[in-house]
Design a protein that fits this description.
This protein is of the alpha+beta class and 361 residues long. Helices cover 28% and strands 22% of the residues. Bound molecules: flavin mononucleotide.
């Protein structure tokens, strides 16, 4: 379970194992490691303390046991992990042989056999994203030192959506987003989204939504032609995030309805003497390389597959039809907790491609 060439991450652990975490290689010696900032990001992903999330009580206290000394990276692999303390295998043991719809159970049982550990989703669980978030924190430090900032936010939940562009400076965007548990930088939409999630939970259902992420300050030319362009590498890691079912850049699928004249972004010299574009339909990417305009991507997150209602499935042991009732503790909507994951995945990819292209040491 590895990703990256120069800034490399390797995830380990499983949802109901002793721990989950990541080993990050490629962080230059002397890079400051701000444990409080990393912990802050892990807290943004955590369910504990949220009103509208899973009731699993995981404190997710970050432990770094290799690669950092006196607050600085030593140049070797950095190992970071959190303990799994609130583990209840019971609900999953009762499911044996009856795959839960919308989960990885069925293909995982066929591929790995009945011995595969699917408690809490095993290695397919959203809990594995702890490692992506911790690695993303290190990547953000490297990028910030080059003047690059990243912020993701909730654009829609169910049918409640933030319309139009969000032209806020990144710091203000983060401030407004963090004022609401759902991660949307708008008070009215936040309460509508909270109501929608609460209603879904009450009716035994779940909701999905869209997360948008913006990165600013990228130099021109980040991305590796031909097979590792910026879009492919970002999509590669973003699609690894459980429940992500779509990724688009700039205007994304809407370009199919545009024309060449409306879709092209015209160039001009900005007041600082840099080349900029009047519009940003391309989302800051042309030919798989960054253009220097803000990178804009959106991720579609499916509704949480575990819903507390009987669902049709099959019994792989008796070879009969069956009904499954998924118990355990689940998020009625994954989106609010996945915002920081999308931000971290974006940071990891940018750090890796910046190193590969010689933009970072
Ligand atoms: C942060 C996060 C939290 C998640 N929480 C849950 C959850 O509480 N219950 C659930 O059924 N799925 C949850 N998921 C999604 C499942 O892990 C995922 O849908 C499942 O493993 C199948 O993979 P796929 O949707 O990518 O095909 C979560 C995903 C993420 C990223």
């Amino acid at each position: 379970m590895e990703f990256g060439r120069s800034f490399r991450i390797e995830l380990f652990g499983a949802s109901h194992g002793p721990e989950v975490g990541v080993v990050v290689s490629g962080v230059p010696a002397g890079t400051p490691v701000d444990v409080a900032a990393l912990q802050h990001d892990l807290d943004r992903r955590r369910a504990m303390g949220r009103r509208l999330a899973s009731r699993r009580q995981e404190p997710d206290e970050l432990l770094i046991d290799r690669g950092v000394h006196g607050g600085l990276a030593d140049g070797g692999p950095i190992r970071m992990h959190v303990a799994n303390v609130d583990v209840r295998r019971g609900p999953y043991e009762r499911l044996k042989g009856r795959p839960r719809p919308g989960h990885a159970d069925y293909p995982a049982l066929v591929r790995y056999g009945p011995g595969v550990d699917l408690s809490g989703g095993g290695i397919f669980s959203g809990r594995m994203t702890v490692g992506i978030v911790a690695a993303g924190g290190l990547a953000k430090t490297l990028l910030a030192a080059r003047g690059i900032g990243i912020a993701a936010f909730t654009r829609s939940i169910g049918r409640v959506a933030l319309r139009g562009p969000v032209p806020l400076p990144l710091a203000e965007l983060r401030r407004r987003r963090d004022a609401h548990e759902v991660g949307v930088p708008d008070r009215e939409r936040a309460s509508e989204m909270e109501r929608a999630i609460a209603a879904a939970r009450r009716s035994g259902d779940s909701l999905g939504g869209v997360i948008e992420c913006r990165a600013e300050g990228l130099p021109v030319g980040v991305g590796e032609p031909f097979f590792d362009p910026l879009e492919s590498e970002l999509a590669h890691l973003l699609f690894a995030v459980p429940a992500v079912k779509g990724v688009e850049f700039g205007d994304g699928f809407a370009v199919a309805r545009a024309t060449g004249r409306t879709n092209n972004d015209a160039f001009y010299w900005d007041p600082a003497g840099r080349v900029a574009t009047r519009t940003n339909h391309a989302g800051g990417i042309l030919g798989g390389l960054s253009t220097g305009m803000p990178l804009v991507l959106r991720v579609a997150v499916k509704p949480t597959p575990s819903v507390p209602r009987p669902q049709e499935t099959v019994d792989l042991i008796t070879r009969e039809g069956a009904t499954v009732v998924v118990t355990g503790r689940h998020d009625p909507c994954i989106v609010p907790r996945a915002v920081v994951v999308v931000e971290a995945a974006t940071a990891v990819v940018l750090a890796d491609l910046m190193m590969r292209g010689g933009f970072l040491p």
